[in-house]
Design a protein that fits this description.
Length: about 110
């Protein structure tokens, strides 16, 4: 993805990595938040990012303002989970005080 330079009237020049489709648009200054037009201080260049790093940058940009959570995606703990599906597990017994016990297999496992 290309790196472009912008010139803020108050803070000075700064660089940003942006898609080529947005090359001629202005950008908000990271310091004061004011609108800064694109400046041609040096020739634009392509940053040498690997595909994995580019994907990580794109993912971070998408989730910067509204991170996706498992609840927002509709993915609870799974179909057999007793806390999400409302069904009680046959392997878990609840005592009167609300504590859980595991009367059958794997008594050493801790429940969520």
């Amino acid at each position: 993805m290309p790196t472009y330079e912008y010139l803020c009237a108050d803070c000075g020049p700064f660089t940003e990595i942006r898609p080529m489709a947005e090359s001629d648009l202005g950008h908000d200054c990271p310091h004061c938040g004011g609108e800064a037009p694109r400046a041609y201080l040096t020739a634009p260049y392509m940053s040498g990012l690997s595909a994995e790093r580019r994907l990580a940058h794109a993912t971070n940009e998408r989730s910067a303002h509204a991170p996706a959570t498992s609840a927002s995606l509709g993915k609870g703990h799974g179909a057999g989970c007793s806390c999400c599906s409302g069904k009680s597990s046959r392997l878990t017994r609840r005592n009167k005080d609300g504590s859980k016990s595991f009367p059958t297999s794997r008594p050493w496992m801790i429940s969520h």
